[in-house]
Amino acid sequence: MVEMMRFAEFVCINPRVNLEKGKNYPFIEMEAVSPGRRYVTSRKTRPFKGGGSKFRSGDTLFARITPCLENGKIAQFAGLGSQECFGSTEFFVFRANPGISEPAYVYYLASTDLIRGPAEKSMSGASGRQRADIQSIADLQVPAPTHPIQRKIATILSAYDDLIENNLQRIKILEDMAQSLYQDWFVKFRFPGHERVRMVDSPLGKIPERWELIKIGGLLEKVKRKKKLKKQSYVTDGPIPVVDQGRDFIGGYTTDQETLFDSPLPIIVFGDHTRILKYVDFPFACGADGTQLLRPNTERMPISLFYYVLKSIDLSDFAYARHFKFLKEQGVLIPNEQIARLFAQVADPMRDLIRCLLSRNTNLRRTRDLLLPKLISGELDVSDLDIKTGGHIQ
């Protein structure tokens, strides 16, 4: 029988961190947290002005605002040593209570419906800006196993998260390789055989002969909607993955507000508000208003080349909620057919490997998420298992 304890006694909620005003510290914004990904690291520093959530390495960040909480924006800050940091005001911070709880176990506990469910039900406030009430989870009775059991549970689940993280790093390397190839061929014009190609004048300056300048909108084919889906719609291997503006695709229930698309795959998904691009080559549902689905005329440009063309466009200054309008007006170069096809021959195998790694991660997440509640609740007893613990943010 697992001992139970009040959550606010098991962990330190929003612990005190002394930061010096005006001094630069690592900063974590909400966008840096990816649902289903355990660790978050700082991408930038900011001067501390007195506001925001404050935490240090090993603490768990728990989104308290809709829809971030429902989407599962929960992560463990992986700083250097006991690095101090601050971030969005929309995080609750949970820290392991010395002598009582382990940092990794606290993260996994916070990821379960034991904590998320009551937090989501407690939300109140203006529509679209509702926030969870901390008291709704502070008084919860939660499983509080011994330290060795906590470490064993965390080690088992960490094995899945470490594999997921490794695959994500491999995906990033492949993405960077393909993007570098695009830059080399289509920005610096160092494509195969470029020495024998004459450069001609254009509004963009000198470009290779027989290359054409055209607006993005002139390349797009219309994507037709197939049908509205009912809640808990399935494909043969499980729930239909949902793709929206702010998340990686997630295998999960669709809702009656999501639309299944039957356009030929692959296809490019563009978040009109978030400016996030995704290359999608599996049946999916579209889960947010404003998400655009883009497919070029593939006789003029292979879709793998089109994807890296889009990724090379700077959308950072575009007006909010009107990104797609500006995107369509962007001029891009279309190479001759030989160079376009040659790029696809090199890039497509990279995309195939990325798709394989994404599929592996989907399966790893599903297995981890099936084990998570059973391990936390004690339904799966790990007390007699010989497991080497350590090597993670414990």
What does this structure look like?
The chain contains 8 helices and 26 strands. The protein is elongated, with a radius of gyration of 24 Å. The strands form 8 sheets. It has a 5-stranded mixed beta sheet with strand order 2-10-7-8-4. It has a 5-stranded mixed beta sheet with strand order 16-21-24-19-20, with no helix packed on it. Strands 5-3-9-6 form a 4-stranded mixed beta sheet, with no helix packed on it. The longest helix is centred in the last third of the chain and has 41 residues, at 337-377. Among the domains are: 4-144, DNA methylase specificity domains (Adenine-n6-DNA-methyltransferase TaqI, Chain A, domain 2, Alpha-Beta Complex), CATH 3.90.220.20; 212-334, Adenine-n6-DNA-methyltransferase TaqI, Chain A, domain 2 (Alpha-Beta Complex). The model is unreliable at 229-238 and 247-259 (pLDDT under 50). 31% of the residues lie in helices and 23% in strands. The two termini are 24 Å apart. With 394 residues, it is an alpha+beta fold. Strand 19 (241-243) and strand 20 form a beta hairpin.
Q: Give the termini distance in whole angstroms.
A: 24 Å
In terms of quaternary structure, the protein is single chain
Note the total helix count: 8
CATH architecture of the domain at 4-144: Alpha-Beta Complex
CA-atom Rg in angstroms:
24 Å
Structural class: alpha+beta
Percent of residues in β-strands: 15-25%
